[in-house]
Amino acid sequence: MAGAKDVVDRTAGALGWAGSVSPELDWAAVEGWVGTALPADYKEFMSRFPSGVFRDVVRILNPVQDRRWSAAFRSDADSMLIGVRSLWEEEGGYPPFPEPGGLIPFAGDVAGGSLCWLPWTADPDEWHVVHLSRSSYRTRTRRSMTAVMRELATSRSERNVLGWDLADTERTFEPF
């Protein structure tokens, strides 16, 4: 199985992205206000990608990039958690973090949906990814964050966590 750095490098290559990030903040501070440790592959991913948009479909904010993006990440995560809570209270499914087994958002789609970790185990490196659309459609994967992002970077059909046909979507990463 490929390591996180290899998956991140292949994702960047698929998108034509050669850049990297020099973080201004440290992960201990981010994990402190999130309230839990975060997956190592996510940290590796964020060492390569700044805040930006993947293929014009997924918006990801880098919480260690600098104070501005950290604040934006926090604000987005708080908003997404409100949506997760609403969906949970209305329809059941997954609760929001910090409820036990609660979803932890890390990115959003351009239609208002959320990509979240499902902390089904105490080890964050084993967490799966769940996509929640605005219309309450849920997709649970058994893959890591980097595997899901690689899938989105290379998808040529609807076979991806979003279920969107990406065949005609340009393979790019655009930093903000």
Automatic annotation (TrEMBL):
Residues 26-139 form the Knr4/Smi1-like domain. This is Knr4/Smi1-like domain-containing protein. It comes from Saccharothrix saharensis. Pfam families: SMI1_KNR4 (PF09346).
